[in-house]
Amino acid sequence: MKQKKIIITGASRGIGKEVAIEFAKQGHQLVLLARNEENLSNICNSLKDVNPSVCYKVCDVTDKEQMSEAIDFAIQKMGGIDIALLNAGVAGSGYFENFDSENLKRIFDVNVMGIAYGLELLIPIMKNQGHGIIAGVASLAEARGIPGNAAYCASKSAATFLLEAARIELQKFGIKVLTIKPGFVKSDMTANNTFYMPFLMETKEAAKIIINGIIAGKKYIGFPMPMVFLSWLGKTVPSGIFEFFIKFWGKPINE
């Protein structure tokens, strides 16, 4: 790609961090957004000799006002936004015997409203530009309700449908919306999981797949392929069969 103006939410760690580093090496202008200022500062300092046009702003994606200020900051710094990677996300395993609706709300605030606020604020800007890419990170976990991860699955399902409808409606304005659905990727988020995670990927590998997909203009980026197949299978098999097998997968490893 020619040099692009890019913002990334959840850029202080995991996939967001690795995508930021790779885009910076390719020479793009970047504004990194996350809550952890120390991590953001360290990333920018580590890249200053590679790409001095990388900067950051502390931002909580669950706060619409902070998101608005961050996007205004990005426009001031770069003069526009060509690509927005709405990557911020949280997990939170929990079983219904100890169901906590506040935990579900916390997960939805980040995983769904973080994308919703991004869409609301970015669409007018990109409509005015006549172009733009909004890439939202959902998950292959949106296929069905997985025991121990109901809140996370539900939030990623909501994000998937939100992005899908936006893609259809916004293409007439020159705005491309793509949905990113990773499987299990090594990160701080998955490090706390107590259940089996098949086909666990390295973060750098996941970041390269995402960047290549964005460059190629894909509408949907799912990986790794074995998990894409399992996700599809999970959607298509009858509920009785799914529920019989998934109850074993959803159990903690130490049980």
Quaternary assembly: single chain
Q: State the CATH topology.
A: Rossmann fold
Q: Tell me what the CATH architecture is.
A: 3-Layer(aba) Sandwich
Mean residue pLDDT: 92
What percentage of amino acids are in beta strands?
5-15%
What is the tally of beta strands? 7
Main sheet? 7 strands, parallel
How many structural domains?
1
CATH H-level superfamily title? NAD(P)-binding Rossmann-like Domain
**Strand ordering within the main sheet:** 3-2-1-4-5-6-7
How much helicity do the residues have?
40-55%
Count of helix runs: 9
Q: How is this fold's topology laid out?
A:
Layout: E1 5-9, H1 14-25, E2 29-34, H2 37-47, E3 54-58, H3 64-78, E4 83-86, H4 101-129, E5 132-137, H5 150-170, E6 175-182, H6 188-191, H7 203-215, E7 220-223, H8 225-236, H9 239-249
Parallel strand pairs: 1-2, 1-4, 2-3, 4-5, 5-6, 6-7
Structural commentary:
Helices cover 50% and strands 15% of the residues. The chain has one domain: 3-Layer(aba) Sandwich (Rossmann fold). The chain has a seven-stranded parallel beta sheet with strand order 3-2-1-4-5-6-7, with helices on both faces. It is globular, with a radius of gyration of 18 Å. The protein starts with a strand and ends in a 6-residue tail after the last helix. The protein is an alpha/beta fold.
